[in-house]
From TrEMBL:
The modification 4-aspartylphosphate is found at D58. PROSITE patterns: RESPONSE_REGULATORY. One of its GO terms (cellular component) is protein-DNA complex. This is Response regulator. GO terms for molecular function: phosphorelay response regulator activity; transcription cis-regulatory region binding. PANTHER family: REGULATOR OF RPOS, TWO-COMPONENT RESPONSE REGULATOR ORR33. Residues 9-123 form the Response regulatory domain. It comes from OM182 bacterium. One of its GO terms (biological process) is regulation of DNA-templated transcription. SMART domains: REC. Pfam families: HTH_8 (PF02954), Response_reg (PF00072).
Amino acid sequence: MSDADQQARLLLVEDDEVFAGVVARALSQRSYDVAHAVDTPYAQQLINSRTFNLAILDLNLGGETSLELIKPLKTRNPSIRILILTGYASIATAVEAIKLGADNYLAKPADTEEILTALLGSRELGEFSKANVSRMEPMSVRRLEWEHIQKVLKENDGNISATARQLKMHRRTLQRKLQKKPVAR
């Protein structure tokens, strides 16, 4: 078996070129064969042309979501390990990603070691972590509010008016809250 056959083939879907470059370089130094895509159409081309053992998908790709890539990746290789990486973590998106077949979900910022641990799981325990949603520390009240808003918004298929009515909140207040970045834990 050649070295190329022994290398784990990893798909990195990340639209932040600088971050992707750092992660790809670090993984290549650890003997991973990394293919990088900046958007879902190019990622789909790579999925159709190669079989990957591992995938790291940035959740938000300039207005698109990478969740639609999970099914084709799993179809091509049912044993693939998939990590969803995002700067906008929420419980609702984590649950959706896991239901679609992702193995783990990690909030940015994350270094290469954290990414590999989340992607590969705990080898020492002989098991893979299923949905280690970020680092489970107690959340602030503001963060709990953010999570609840995201959950209700998802239940209403993104309809802000319906979500505001359900939350008994003025629509403009909800819009202002949604324009802000997620609250830190």
